[in-house]
Amino acid sequence: MNSVGAVSRLVVFGDACGSGTLGMEAKKRMRDALYGAFGEAYGSVGVELDRIHQEDRGDGILTALDPGTPPTLMVGRWLETLYQCLREHNWSSADRLRLRVGMNLGPVFDDGRGLVGRAVDLACRLCDSPTAKQIMVDAPGADLLLVVSDWLYANVVAEGGRYVEPEHYRSAHVRFKETDETAWFHIPRLSAPPVPRLSEPSVSGGTARHKTGGGPTLGDGPPPPEPGPVKGPLNGPRLPEPGSGDHPQSSGVGRTINAQGDLQYFEGNVIHGGFTGFSKGSERRTERSDGTERSDRSERSDRTDRSDLPDRSDRTTGTESGDGA
Questions:
Q1: Residues 275-290: pLDDT tens digits?
Q2: DSSP letter at 208?
Q3: Burial class of 11 by CB neighbour count within 10 A (0 to 12, 13 to 18, 19+)
Q4: Terminus of the chain with fewer CB atoms < 10 Å: N or C?
Q5: How many Cα atoms sit within 13 Å of 313 on the Cβ side?
Q6: Least confidently predicted of 44-53, 154-163, 251-260, 314-323
Q7: How many degrees, rounded to 5, is the angle at CA 232 between CA 226 and CA 233?
Q8: How far apart are the first and last CA of the chain?
Q9: CA angle at residue 310 from 307 to 316, to 5 degrees?
Q10: What is the DSSP letter of 293?
C-alpha cells in the first residue's frame, strides 16, 4: 500500500494504567470515565466527535483528528481539560483512572477498517513503551502522562502557548519493538517527570560500545579488563614461561633487548629488568655510590668511524659489553 490518499493528521492514543487488574464491573466504570474525559477534552477545543476518527482499544482509545485542528490546542487546552477531568473523577470515585497518552503527527490512511501509517504506530508505541509505564510507576500520585514525538515537541510544544509548558518536559530514548526514537514526557503540575536512566545506545552493527564500567551510563563502575598477556614479545627473544625466572611477563607490547645477558624489555613507556643505564653517542654517565656522576668513554665509543658495524636502523643500544654493569 502506498501513501496515496494519506493525510497528515494528529494521532492521539490514550491507554488506562493497570486495567488488567480490574474486574468486569470496574472495567465498565473505567471505560465510561475514559470516554467521558476524552469527550469533554475534545469539546474544550471545539472538536466535534463526529469529525474525528475514533477506534476503541478496550482499555484505550485511538483517535485521528481533522487536519484543520491546531496541534497547539491539543498539547495545551485539551491536555489541561483532560487532566482536570481525571482529577475530578478520581476525587469522587473509588475507581481511580490514570492515563498515558501518546501523540504524534504524520500521514495517516483510513482503509475502512482502521487507521494505517507510521504516525499511528509511533503514537501507540510511545504510549505503551516501558519508559512511559515506568514513569507512572515512579510517579504514583500522577493521574496523567503525555508522551509526544520528537518532531511534535520541536515544532509545536517548544513554541509554547497557553497551557503549554515546554520547560516541564523531559526527553528519553525509547526502544520498543520496531521503535528507536527520542520522545518527550510531561506530567501536568510536575516540573519534571521521573524519567528513568536508560542503557547506553549501541553503535552501528548492534555492538555495544566499550564503557568505562558495567553500569548503565558512561563512567559507572570499574574499567573493562585489559587484553590478556601474550607468551612472548613481538620482536626479540622469547620471554620465560611463568614461574621459570624472576623476570615479569610481557604483554607483547614493545621490544625485548638482551644487554649483557640481562633480560631487558619495554612495555609501552616502561622499561623492565635490571639495568645500569643507556649510552647514546660516545659518552655515558653513571652514578657513584656517593651520589656524584662520572663520565666515561667506552672502547667502542672512542671509534670515530663506525662504518665497519652492520647497518641496523632499528637497533636499540643497551649498556655496552665491557663497560661494566
A1: 555 544 544 454 555 5
A2: P
A3: buried
A4: N
A5: 0
A6: 314-323
A7: 80
A8: 85
A9: 105
A10: E
Question: According to the model, what pLDDT value does residue 225 have?
Answer: 46
CB distance 101 to 54 below 8 Å: no
The residues, any chain, with a CB within 8 Å of residue 52's CB and separated by 6 or more, are 42, 63, 64, 65, 66
Short-list 74, 178, 72, 38, CA closest to 121: 178
Q: Which of 130, 143, 158, 147 is CA-nearest to residue 185?
A: 147
Q: Which has the closest alpha carbon to 142: 205, 93, 190?
A: 190
Q: What is the mean pLDDT of residues 23-38?
A: 91
Q: What whole-number distance in Å separates Cα of residue 59 and Cα of residue 18?
A: 9
Q: What angle do CA 128, 134, 140 make, to 5 degrees?
A: 115
Q: CB-based burial of residue 219 (10 Å sphere; 0-12 exposed, 13-18 middle, 19+ buried)?
A: exposed
- 133-136 CB contacts, 8 Å cutoff, 24+ apart: 133/17, 133/100, 134/196, 135/185, 135/187, 135/193, 135/194, 135/195, 135/196, 136/17, 136/98, 136/100
d(CA 34, CA 55): 13
DSSP 3-state of 9: strand
Find where cell 507510521 sits. Answer: 118
- β 7-16/60-64 pair status: antiparallel
Tell me the DSSP string of 226-255: PPPP-SS-SSSSPPPPTTSSSSPPP-S-S-
pLDDT of residue 222: 40
Q: What pLDDT sits at residue 290?
A: 57
Q: What are the pLDDT digits (tens) for 195-210?
A: 987 533 333 333 333 3
Residue given cell 655496552 in the structure block:
320
Residues paired with residue 7 on neighbouring β-strands, in sequence order: 108
Report the C-alpha gap between 305 and 323 in whole angstroms. Answer: 19
Residues whose CB falls within 8 Å of the CB of residue 251, separated by 6 or more in sequence, listed in order: 226, 227, 229, 230, 267
